[in-house]
Amino acid sequence: MSLTWEAKATDGYARAGTLKTAHGDVPTPTFMPVGTAATVKGMTADAVRSTGAGIVLGNTYHLMLRPGADKVASFGGLHKLMDWSGPILTDSGGFQVMSLAGLRKLDKDGVTFQSHIDGSKHRLTPEISVQIQHKLDATITMVLDECPPFPVTEEQAQSSMEMSMRWAGLSRDAFVPRDGYGLFGIVQGSVFPDLRRRSIDALMQIGFEGYALGGLAVGEGQEMMFAMIEATWDHMPADKPRYLMGVGTPDDLLGSIARGIDMFDCVMPTRAGRTGRAFTSRGIFNMRNARFADDGRPLDPGCTCLGCQRHVRGYLHHLFRAEEMLGPILLTWHNLTYYQTVVAGARAAILEGRLDSYIAAVRARWAEGDQADG
Which residues are noted in the entry as substrate-binding (predicted)? Predict the structure, then answer.
């Protein structure tokens, strides 16, 4: 039996469920920390687990270049290499390759590109991408697709979407079914609702274990992103997980959960942590700001992360001003914990039929700001 998703409760469009995989069950909605190169930057696997994460993400493009899919396989696959026994989703590499601009050449069968590391030439096709993800032992494999830039004309978006749907079929043919594993299709069509609905129809004819919304959070803005989710929600299978790729801020997550999304990933909490930005229940703080130098309070009272439990804001400020590596580590740890807290709270609220009031309360605390704590 392939990977499955089981609904537990609904609240409006929002859903709480369980993703059942070969590497364990994951409650949804869920946020997946990004471990691009077989590591969530600055975090051990135990640290990632302590945040409440149940599934992480790896990346085909980066891992095929370094250390190489065959080498990962020789080490026992990503799960063993990363010390992560839970599910792993691997992005197909399409987004990264399409971002290479002058270093890649696209054709109807795939893309030829030069490595950003050493300039070496490589080929990525739907079949090759799926084969690499199999070697990585990805619990969830993503089809190879083209993510068009924004803005894009409707004609360009249609051509790109149709090619991605062809690639989706080739990816399905190349995928080797295994108990508890799955292949996700990716909906494309930019900001054109009709194209997105046509994309969903094409993917459903092929048949996948889950469906992702791609090509969003690329500059179109939150309002348009939410509009595209709303335009496609009723056309997506009710018994399959829905994954919004590369999103986003805590507010993006809450708004998308309310619109029926089950799974998310984004580099934002880890990237922000490395640059001194903290996502908290009272809004976003810049820990380099001088106002934190003498602040003896925890970063976010009630947070269970190591930084909040054992250190004060003044110490975190000092670490960043002194350029000590512990600062980014602790803030990454906190941000990932906060993301998991927000999503877990949304799940509990869906199960109890109070999601709207939960979202309103979270947003109200953000609006009150830091002064509400003291």
Answer: 91-95, 145, 188, 215
Task: List, as residue ranges, the binding site for substrate.
Answer: 91-95, 145, 188, 215
Dump pLDDT digits (tens) for 81-117: 999 999 999 999 888 877 887 788 889 999 998 998 9
Concatenate the DSSP letters of all residues of 131-191 into one string.
Answer: HHHHHHT-SEEE-------SS--HHHHHHHHHHHHHHHHHHHHH----TT-EEEEEE--TT
Catalytic residue among 137, 252, 262, 265: 265
For the chain, the domain total comes to: 2
In the residue annotation, 265 being an active-site residue is answered as yes
Q: Which domain holds residue 86?
A: 4-266
pTM over 0.70: yes
* One domain for residues 59 and 189: yes
14 and 162 assigned to the same domain? yes
Query: Catalytic annotation on 109?
Result: no
Give binding residues as ranges.
91-95, 145, 188, 215, 303, 305, 308, 334
